[in-house]
Give the backbone structure.
Amino acid sequence: MPYIAILAFFVVLPLILIGIYAFTNQQGQFTIQNFVQFFHRSEAVNTFIYSIAIAMITTIICIVLGYPAAYIMAMKSFRTPAVMAMLFILPMWINFLLRTLATVELCHMFNIPLGEGPLLFGMCYDFLPFMIYPIYNTLQKIDVSVLEAACDLGANRWEVFAKVVIPLSMPGVYSGIVMVFMPTVSTFAISELLTQNKITLFGSLIQRSFGEGGIAMWNYGAALSLIMLIIISLTSFFGNNDNEEINR
């Protein structure tokens, strides 16, 4: 009961309030004008599409960098998994805003102009561990006898990796995609710091809508939040369905 009460107060109630604000106007009357306003603003739509693209690129980069790292950590013949795991965990002990500010200082140190490049770098730096550990946990649970059986049936090392290891590791990859894509598509602090507000992401639009004050902007910000929530929910839904298919 205590957990149900906590979830109801801190999760369900805020979601209900977002839904109420999204479908009402300043007078509290039902309306869909907040959503119409979003689709009629080309700047908001372009920002939304750009945010999705940035999140997808960040997720792809994290997969390319994270899968080999997770594979090396999961290999029993190496003595480095504990050291690598510690190196990836250590930055997570520091607040992500401090890590982002440190990235800004690195860009200043090497005379790198703040913009899209540093933004992608900062995104990958902050969310790469969320891709590595789900893949690592999945790879670690693969039964060695399955790999040995593939070798006994005539598969070479690359065929074992391509036809056995990769398919069996897909649940971890999908979990990593969800864990990276969701926070990346909705973040605003990282983009504001690493681009000096030159690039606006969808999370920044939501933050500004609530920060500017006024019930009208709150209604519009709630509508934007609901759109983002739907996108994240669809991502999680399709990811769970794919995981179930793979497990079958």
Notes: The domain at 34-247 is CATH 1.10.3720.10 (MetI-like fold).
